Amino acid sequence: MAKDKLKADTYVIITENTTPTPIENWFFQEMISYSNRDIVKIGRGATAKDEKHLSIKINSGMADTYCITHSEETLQISVQNESVAKWMVYQFIEALSQEDHRFNSSDLPFATIQFLSHCKQFDFEYREPFLPTNLVAGNPVKLGTHSVDMDWGLWGHNLSKVVALDSSMAAWKNGERHPDQLCFSSPALFGEFSAYIIDTFGDGEEASYRFMIMPNDNDLVCMCDMCEKEGNSASHATPAVAAFIRKLAERFPNHKFFTSAYRTTRFPPANPIPSESGVFLSTIDLPQGVSLSDALPPVKNFVDQVAQWKNVSNHLYVWDYISNFDDYLTPLPILYSLQKRLIFFKRIGIKGVFLNGSGYDYSSFEDVKTYVAARLLQDIESDVDVLVTHFFKKFYGNAAPLLTNYYLQTEKDFTKTERTIDIYGGMKENVASYLDRNKFLSFYEDLEKTEDSPDRIKQLEIAMNFTRLQLAYIDPMRDFRLLKKKYLKPSSHLRIILSKLEEHRDFDNFIVYREEEGNLRNFVSFWREKIFEADVTNYLLNQPLSVKGMAAESGIEILTDGLPGFEEDYHQGWFISVSDISFEWTSTFSGNKRLHLRFLKQEKHGFDKPDKLSIEINGAAVPDHFEESINSGTIEISTSIKLRKGDKVKLSLIRKKGPKNKIALDEIRIN
Fold first, then answer.
1. What is the DSSP letter of 196?
2. Are the C-beta atoms of residues 532 and 490 closer than 8 Å to each other?
């Protein structure tokens, strides 16, 4: 047997005791499940010819995450804890299957470590890519990651949802109780939450969990006598939250309690929190999709914040981002920049990373991103290109070269631009930032020709139809025919693309294309009813407009492109203004016509119809005989208008007062 080869005729799980330890027995059972009982044994004794002796031990006191000692006859593995032990077993089985084809590891991710003698400490103690692949039961063990489902007893702003609230638990401010915020000094709150922990998760001796202790998502701070005594101020709730965590840590020393540096808990408390407790710091204010330089003011501010929290906590985790939350389906190059960001995070003392992604919802290439991110969180120096290549080769069959080439080329092209990514961006932002239309269309056409049709390929093909439609939507003259200079007719191939997108219904987690709303069925219906079937005649089609107003967030050409806006998504077809605004144009036609204006109404995002609108023709005001109709999410205002060729028309919109109020108009349409 050659030195350091894994393959043998027989494999023996060595146990030093009469009864195997739980992890030794688990190792044995997993080896059998991926092969057959005849070639795997468990027991004690000397090495026989053509046998490989395998031992695995858990040593919670070791400094490294794992150590491997490998000789011709034996493979000895020592690990810090049970979860690492199970991950290591899967790594070994997958690596072994490459040499010994009696093992079938088709469901295991490609092994990322070599079984040579060495020790390694993972770069981060907490490692979670919040993506569908990582949330499949059993996958975190195989990937060596954590997950909100497996590791947390409480996540996010949900404390008030798991206890039976009474008035004594509500925040006190200005002489009254506020039930939409918590009083963290309340003995009743501590008692109720302690009971919840005991009843649901136990005291932590058998299994330890993490719990997120955060105020409700608003700026209220409890100012009762007890919270003020802890140190609360009008905008600073951290003192009472930290005191609450200290009490919980004392009551449950085997569990771990975290808070978040967010809103009223942005700044640390004066005194340290318990040694096993920690804090999450969000990177939302940092540039996204790029490496981080200390010279940038937002980065410097973040580094200063980390330094402040280091004084009170040993466990600083970051909440970073790896998805575009307004477009889950368009390919997003994120892995090269992720590696650089992780190197930066480690350098400034971050111990854990939560990569916020599409969660339980499908997003394109999320499986390869999960696999690569899982490895980078263990070893930030891993080769991204090698990891991507191995993953596609193992799971995508004949399509692997196409996917590997396109994905890595997108990463490389984007890196050269040094642009940032808008993690709440629509297709126009994608194209402006990283998406090369021609390269995508070439990839799209080649992907359709692939002969393999496993679910992974099928889902990706469906997702790419969404991107293909979006490209047609933002540049309609490429895929629509202009008829009589008054309306657009979709090309027939767009109907085929839409029908293919409808196949998303075959998959349970393929329901939305964005974080909020974005239901794909509604998206398909919008295309079919508002674009394919509706009368979109517009005498202003492609006519130039001039705009007067302080600021607009999207191009004015959208108002005469002949396409309606999507009611559920303000990124799709809406001209957005944060100020009063007016439009002017010269009429190219004569006759009695009707002017139609459709405004988005979304209270959450501040969109509403104008407080006032007016029309002038050649400087003279037109009587305001406006008709209004309210539909789901929109308000349409229309009026009759008499025009002569050459008339100068001015449309003025006065925004409703308020700092967050905006106007979103999809089309100035005259028919």
1. H
2. yes
Q: In whole angstroms, give the CA distance from residue 183 to residue 172.
A: 7
Assigned token pair, 255: 């569990």
- Sheet strands side by side (includes 152-154): 126-130, 352-356, 315-321, 278-282, 256-261, 210-212, 152-154
Instruction: Find the radius of gyration of the CA atoms of the chain.
Output: 30
3-class SS string, 232-255: CECCECHHHHHHHHHHHHHHCCCC
Is the pTM higher than 0.90?
yes
Query: What pLDDT, on the 0 to 100 scale, is given for residue 44?
Result: 79
How is residue 662 annotated by DSSP?
B
Supply angle C-alpha 18, 19, 22, rounded to 5: 150
In the prediction, which pLDDT does 358 show?
Answer: 97
CA dihedral 43, 47, 49, 52 (to 10 degrees): 70
How would residue 2 be classed by pLDDT, with cut points 50, 70 and 90?
very low
| Tens of pLDDT, residues 246-289 | 999 999 999 999 999 999 999 999 999 999 999 999 999 999 98
Q: Tokens representing 324?
A: 């575009």
| Residues 145 and 129 sit within 8 Å (Cβ to Cβ) | yes
**Distance of alpha carbon 364 from alpha carbon 454, whole angstroms:** 15
The three-point CA angle 439-445-448 to 5° equals 140
Cα 182 to Cα 160: distance, rounded to the nearest angstrom: 8
The total of other beta-carbon atoms located within 10 Å of residue 626's CB is 14
Q: Write the pLDDT tens digit of every residue in 30-54.
A: 999 999 878 999 987 766 788 999 9
Beta carbons of 178 and 172 less than 8 angstroms apart: yes
Looking at the DSSP bridge assignments, the partners of residue 553 are: none
Contact 459, 510 (CB under 8 A): yes
Residue range 2-8: average pLDDT?
76
Q: Residue 432 corresponds to which amino acid?
A: A
Q: Say which residue the tokens 């980390």 belong to.
A: 306
Q: What is the pLDDT of residue 296?
A: 93
Q: Please answer whether residues 512 and 644 qualify as being in contact, where contact means their C-beta atoms are separated by less than 8 angstroms.
A: no
3-state secondary structure of 441: helix
Q: Which residue has the tokens 């909020």?
A: 516
| pLDDT for the residue numbered 659 | 82
Q: How far, in Å, are 275, 353, 440, 551, 571 from residue 436 at the CA level?
A: 48, 30, 6, 28, 19
Location of structure tokens 């090495």: 47
pLDDT digits (tens, 9 = 90+) for 214-246: 999 999 999 999 999 999 999 999 999 999 999
